[in-house]
Amino acid sequence: MLMEADLPNDVEALRALVLEQSRTLATERAARADLALTKDEADAEIERLQSIIDAFKRHRFGRKSEQLQLGLEDIETALGQARAAREAVTAKAGGDRPRKANRGALPAHLERIEQIVDVDDRACPCCGGALHQIGEDVAERLDVVPTTFRVLVTRRPRYGCRSCESAIVQAPVPARIVEGGIPTEALIAQVLVAKYADHVPLYRQAQIYARQDIQLDRSTLADWVGRAAWYLRPLRDRILEELRRSQRLFADETTAPVLDPGRGRTKTGQLWAYARDDRPWGGDDPPLVAYVYAPDRKSERAEARLGSYSGILQVDGYSGYAALARRSQQFSLAFCWSHVRRKFYELADSSPVATDVLRRIASSHPVKAAR
Asked: Which terminal residue of the chain has fewer beta carbons within 10 Å of its beta carbon, N or C?
């Protein structure tokens, strides 16, 4: 900002200064107009993308399919880019950054590492006096430490007796899942979680390890998975045994493509799930779920796992469960409102009866109707 003392006494010099300031002001106004236009464009793009996301969510039924999830990810990524562009424009224009929506507090159990961002000079910019702290702003961000590999070195000292030269004493080798192998149990657990929970195939995991200069063949990882599965069988059987003691169970099955060795293609297997969750009823039993692979969808597969179960089994509309219930005569079937509603939902546009059924379901099961 020009002060009175900065103004020249010469009229021509003063005239030149005024013209220069006028040109600068015009340039700034044009830049602000461009920024405003860019911000409006960003706002329009954000509104467009948000409307697409809302449409996706309105037209989905039940759980989101994997394809819908992927589509939403792409749209929400583009939405994030548009928001970042708008924030950059706002910051460049000198305006206040839009306040972020509250995403909820970060988990309390996470380690907190504090960083102090302080002023360089604690002298008052006005009078030069000493400043004192009157408060602070605190912001939390979620950080990640990339996977760090390390080598655990196990040393087992051997001891001998000078009096009895034949006596050698040494601690036994600790038990391992892979005897004589290189993986710790933690590493094997990581491979299992990546494969079965995160859906990362073993060959991709091998590529990830190779980026750290750790050479592990896919066949080696597969051997670890097989050995771990053998050790986990008693746990699987114990979970199934505990599930059979429950008053209420959920059962479902879904297709699972598996390799068909020697034929150069995949075949369709079935992954059966047996679950218990009494939390909505205030039950004391902890939630449990067991996943069991089978080559087909025959009701005998469920019969082999349920055994002498007597209680309530909630299922979808698969007829195999009804056949199983007739043979067993030990448990009662309960069905799923989401599956019942789905058929009427598909007919709602052309059938007043279906529309009326949907209305009745909505009035008696508002939570289900909202999903």
From this structure: N
